[in-house]
Amino acid sequence: MCIKKRCYPGLKGGWLWRALLACFFANGLPAASIRELLAEFETGTTSPAFCAGDLKIGRSKEVSRFQILPQVWQQYTTSQDYVNPTTAWSVAERILRDRRETFRRCTGREWNDRELYLMWNAPGAYAQANFNPKKLSRVVRERAERFANLASRDRANAVKSPSRFDSQAMRPTKPAQPFVLVQK
Q1: What is the DSSP annotation of 2-16?
Q2: Which end is more exposed in the chain, N or C (fewer Cβ atoms within 10 Å of the end residue's Cβ)?
Q3: Could you give the 3-state DSSP secondary structure of residue 138?
């Protein structure tokens, strides 16, 4: 792991690494929400457990619930366990981290939900367009807008319910107020 051109061996996997990853998702959505959003948006997967979405292969041979190109996947891991949700998220998280850093370095700012998806789905085209979404195809812009709308919905619902991917987010239900019949 390198921070400001200084390498810190052994950082990856420890508590500091987890803290850095938490900071990574500071665009208003926690990591679990981004994981959920990408899985749902790319393959319709709404379960944290293995499911049919993990087996989907995209038109360009994308793999996993996050629809990652195999050649990109191989840049981040030697594993070919594309159907394992935990492995897939680990790869996706590292891809997002690198693409976020590229975006920040090139634009000098944080990305929003639409830009997050553009950097996920079409990072080369977006960079070639000088990070101007108006220069991208209508199809790519519309997908990014749908993703941003889904993120807005997710953010609004986050207050109402815990993450469905986070088993520790289960909270006890509030006991119902006792029903009292009042007779007059």
Answers
A1: EETTEE-TT-TTSHH
A2: C
A3: helix
Query: Among 72, 13, 62, which Cα is nearest to 41's?
Result: 62
* Angle between helical axes of 31-43 and 15-24 (0-180°, round to 10): 60
In the chain, what's the furthest Cα-to-Cα distance? 78
Burial class (CB in 10 A: 0-12, 13-18, 19+), 35: buried
Task: For residues 151 and 157, give the distance between their C-alpha atoms in angstroms, rounded to a whole number.
Answer: 10
Task: List per-residue pLDDT tens for the chain, 184 residues long.
Answer: 333 333 334 444 444 444 444 444 445 556 668 999 999 999 999 999 999 999 999 999 999 999 999 999 999 999 999 999 999 999 999 999 999 999 999 999 999 999 999 999 999 999 999 999 999 999 999 999 999 999 988 777 765 555 555 544 433 344 444 444 445 5
Alpha helices in the chain (DSSP H): 15-24, 31-43, 70-76, 85-107, 113-121, 123-128, 138-158
Query: Any idea how long the chain is?
Result: 184
The DSSP letter of residue 135 is G
